[in-house]
Amino acid sequence: xxxxxxxxxxxxxxxxxxxxxxxxxxxxxxxxxxxxxxxxxxxxxxxxxxxxxxxxxxxxxxxxxxxxxxxxxxxxxxxxxxxxxxxxxxxxxxxxxxxxxxxxxxxxxxxxxxxxxxxxxxxxxxxxxxxxxxxxxxxxxxxxxxxxxxxxxxxxxxxxxxxxxxxxxxxxxxxxxxxxxxxxxxxxxxxxxxxxxxxxxxxxxxx
Length: 207
Hints:
Blueprint: H1 2-21, H2 26-31, H3 35-48, H4 53-65, H5 69-82, H6 87-100, H7 103-116, H8 123-136, H9 140-153, H10 158-170, H11 174-187, H12 192-206
């Protein structure tokens, strides 16, 4: 009888721990590129707890990674109803709108990200996308500031330096533009946009 009771109590202790260890892990699935699985896990989690902010975060990441941008916007907005200051969800909604070509909506959430998380892990990307939208709108001064801030936070991207060079080229800031193009080509000597941009600026300077 004692042996039976001991075995029963041992299983009672082990079983919950085993069950917890084998629960589906949405973040692990996302990191391993199993986006559909991550989406389903987080949807199930939200069915049980509609206020689970972490589930909304991973769901948004997985939806964007799977190319389901409108769904990412829809669920992201639901997540922001739970916590409107959650910068990771703000980034999800911003990215989804960027991919959908909703420039005004994207800009709204990019600017909100800057307000909420000025040193957040996505801040260099945020300023880069802001710069692209300002280029689209023909607002080259604001694009200059955005791209300059992006490379300040992360100066390892040749493309971002080239875009900074382009914004400054549109402003007629030839010397500053040339410096940005030169920096881009130091990082990637074969970047066509930087090669062509530097040539255009050199022509202006020599003329």
